[in-house]
Specification:
It is a single chain. It is built from 10 helices and 14 strands. The strands form 4 sheets. A 7-stranded parallel sheet has the order 3-2-1-4-5-6-11, sandwiched between helices. The chain has about 325 residues and is of the alpha/beta class. It has helices spanning about 10-20, 55-65, 80, 85-105, 140-160, 185-195, 220-240, 255-265, 290-295, 305-320, and strands spanning about 1-5, 25-30, 45-50, 65-70, 110-115, 160-170, 170, 200-205, 215, 220, 245-250, 255, 275, 285. It has 2 domains: about 1-170 and about 220-250, Rossmann fold (3-Layer(aba) Sandwich), CATH 3.40.50.720; about 170-215 and about 250-285 and about 300-320, UDP-galactose 4-epimerase, domain 1 (Alpha-Beta Complex). It is an enzyme of class 5 (isomerase). Its cofactor is NAD(+). InterPro entries: Epimerase_deHydtase, NAD(P)-bd_dom_sf, UDP_G4E. Pathway: Carbohydrate metabolism; galactose metabolism.
């Protein structure tokens, strides 16, 4: 028997695949390679190129690889772009999840770990976000993730699906030099690309009500995140009690200015970030508690900020050298 990882050739997904392999659990990946890369997968990984919008292919994959559960990571993940492409976002994230759940029901696959997002909270008015913090998503992306959680919960009532959803914030770092963050919108790739091109990285706003005036966020190492997904899957396999939702948060957060200082220290490239205007709707601080996940999913921050930057920089330079 095996677990299927949708979007498993992506930056996060390929780390989840490696985490499963490290625990001796068979995995099959379904990915359309729209943002993932086949080269990110360990050699020998069972792979099916396809989309979660193709229910027939999903059902055949479940049968062929004797799939017992799904880690659902596939989707359109760009919150800012989703405002300009709402229909595309909903088709990928909502229609895709419906199609996946229908295929699971048809083939008796009864376990799911859903990769949700802290975007479901929007701009919270609390210092520390918990799973009970009101959900007020402010983009089609955040809305689609919340709808995904609803769909999964409703399907659980209807069919007995065992599930959990993991909400998290900014994922950084690398667990292997072969995999790096390819997003054109995330902070680390933007900063590294600027430095490699001889440009000065920029900070969007330095007048927020935070200790150094820049945004504060959770930054989580991708390998730590991947481990939590696999522990959740193992918990579902064992039949142990599991919460419907967990936040994977640091509990403290890191500011953008602190990130910039760490990048300068790690890369040895001295720079003073430029200051750009604030981005509309960008909250001053979003930090989540990971206490519930620590209790059930072995969640903890195993990597320091310097280690996050070092691993990400190593992987990015390795990619540049290819």
């Amino acid at each position: 028997m095996s677990w299927l990882v949708t979007g498993g050739a992506g930056y996060i997904g390929s780390h989840v695949v490696r985490a499963f392999a490290s625990r001796g659990i068979d995995v099959v990946v379904v990915d359309d390679l729209s943002s993932g890369r086949r080269s990110f997968l360990p050699e020998g990984t069972a792979f099916v190129q396809g989309t979660i919008l193709d229910g027939s292919q999903l059902e055949m994959t479940f049968e062929r690889f004797d799939v017992q559960g799904v880690v659902h990571l596939a989707g359109f993940k760009y919150a800012g772009v989703s405002v300009q492409r709402p229909l595309h976002t909903y088709r990928q994230n909502v229609t895709g999840t419906i199609t996946l759940l229908a295929a699971m029901e048809a083939r008796g696959v009864d376990r799911m770990v859903f990769s949700s997002s802290a975007a479901v909270y929007g701009t919270p008015d609390v210092d520390l976000v918990t799973e009970d913090t009101p959900k007020r998503p402010q983009s089609p992306y955040g809305e689609s993730k919340l709808v995904g959680e609803w769909l999964i919960a409703d399907q659980a009532v209807a069919t007995g699906l065992r599930h959990t959803s993991l909400r998290y914030f900014n994922v950084v770092g690398s667990g292997t030099p072969q995999v790096f963050d390819v997003s054109p919108h995330n902070l680390f790739p933007l900063v590294f690309d600027a430095l490699l091109d001889g440009r000065t990285p920029r900070i969007n706003g330095n007048d927020y009500p935070t200790p150094d005036g820049t945004n504060v966020r959770d930054y989580l190492h991708v390998a730590d995140l991947a481990e939590a997904h696999v522990v959740a899957a193992e918990r579902l396999d064992s039949g142990k009690p599991i919460e419907p939702v967990y936040n994977l948060g640091s509990g403290t957060g890191v500011s953008v200015a602190e990130i910039m200082r760490a990048v300068a220290d790690v890369t040895g490239i001295e720079f003073t970030p430029g200051i750009a205007p604030r981005r509309a709707g960008d909250p001053a601080r979003i930090v989540a508690s990971g206490d519930l996940a620590a209790r059930d999913l072995e969640w903890r921050m195993r990597h320091s900020l310097a280690e996050m930057v070092e691993s990400a920089w190593e992987a990015r330079r390795a990619a540049s050298a290819e």
